[in-house]
Design goal:
By secondary structure, the protein is of the alpha+beta class. The protein is built from 19 helices and 7 strands. The two termini are 29 Å apart.
Length: 373
């Protein structure tokens, strides 16, 4: 695996099954999705490959290209309506056999690592006496390349859980982290009360009555068997992680907003004394600072190469106190400034599409233009 591939995967990846709602949404709008999917290497054999994953940056490129193709900036909401539990693989099939909407939501979020991972965080289910929040983590700063991810996920949860209930479900509350977009009224179709934009989190609220709804297709034995299979796969997924991998997995959600995570923070999350973690890292021939800087460098290169974020936004996402501090660190790591690195990568990208079809070349030029800083 190349260094570029490793960096992209460090941002996260997801099952190629989650591409299907995008394809179905494009078909609904009268567009053939096949040429676009082919351009991103998602032919029939790839989509049928067991365990196949798509990197988060590539998924964002694909979604943005689909929005440009159909002209619908609210495509993510349309994707959500086409979302099916089977698209989430074994975890989704397990949720489809849950006894209640509550159990389905819990299974879908607990087993999220089986179908999607993102260094920024994990989804969570938070219940109280009156209902529950289904929480999606922040992927700010928001732009045309990532808003559709929030739209498709939150609306997709409602569609998926409606299939368990055997009836349409509306959110009691719907909170969106980014400001209200031009198509804000379309979000209201998902919620009983006014949608709250500019919120502190991306999340869906379901009341207790909705959570208690029974699944008419529930089969107890099948449900228990599927739960065992998911638990085994989740255990295998986490068991094979090295100490380095476990630490970088914990570091991601703590990087943001000018705050740099410390060894003590990570040790606490691992339920270890800080001196024990420091010793274990030394035994593996590394140190906390080395891991943190290595992760930041990989992520910085990926963000600069594969997203439209400004350098100030990259600095924020990676926990630097300022854009200047980030740019100094990047030059120390790579020997070039972030601006020089982005221009180099843009030239490489343009060279790689020199022999592409006119439509591919047009898309590449649009991508380069959107990445200017």
């Amino acid at each position: 695996m190349s260094a570029q591939s490793r960096a992209a995967l460090r941002l996260g990846d997801l099952s190629v099954g989650l591409v299907q709602p995008l394809a179905d949404a494009l078909r609904e709008l009268g567009h053939d999705p096949e040429p676009l999917l082919q351009r991103y290497g998602l032919d029939a054999s790839r989509l049928a490959q067991v365990g196949a994953r798509l990197s988060i940056p590539r998924y964002m490129h694909l979604g943005h290209a689909a929005i440009e193709l159909c002209g619908d900036s609210g495509l993510g909401l349309r994707m959500g309506r086409h979302s099916r539990l089977a698209h989430a693989g074994l975890a989704g099939i397990t949720a489809s056999q849950a006894p209640t909407v509550r159990a389905a939501a819990q299974a879908l979020l607990r087993f999220e690592p089986l179908y999607a991972s993102n260094y920024r965080g994990r989804c969570s289910f938070e219940e109280d006496a009156h209902g529950a929040w289904l929480n999606f983590y922040s992927i700010s700063p928001y732009n045309a390349y990532n808003r559709f991810v929030v739209d498709s996920l939150l609306s997709g949860w409602l569609t998926q859980l409606s299939s368990v209930a055997g009836r349409p479900l509306l959110a009691e509350r719907l909170h969106i982290e980014f400001p209200a977009p031009a198509e804000a009224e379309r979000y209201q179709e998902l919620c009983e009360h006014p949608v709250q934009f500019g919120s502190e989190a991306n999340r869906v609220r379901l009341g207790r009555a909705a959570l208690d709804l029974r699944n008419p297709l529930h089969c107890p034995g099948t449900w228990q068997h599927l739960l065992q299979l998911c638990e085994a796969e989740l255990e295998q997924l986490t068991h094979v992680r090295s100490l380095r991998e476990r630490i970088t997995h914990l570091l991601g959600p703590q990087l943001s907003g000018g705050r740099e995570p410390s060894l003590e923070d990570v040790a606490q999350r691992m339920n270890l004394p800080s001196w024990t973690l420091r010793r274990q890292l030394a035994e593996e021939g590394t140190g906390f600072r080395e891991l943190l800087n290595g992760m930041r460098r990989d992520l910085a290169e990926t963000y600069i190469r594969d997203t439209a974020l400004s350098f100030g936004e990259v600095a924020y996402v990676l926990g630097f106190t300022s854009a200047e501090a980030f740019q100094r660190a990047f030059k120390r790591w790579t020997g070039v400034t972030p601006g020089s690195y982005r221009r180099q990568q843009r030239r490489l990208n343009q060279s790689s599409v020199a022999s592409s079809t006119p439509s591919d070349l047009s898309a590449s030029k649009a991508w380069a233009s959107n990445n200017s800083s």
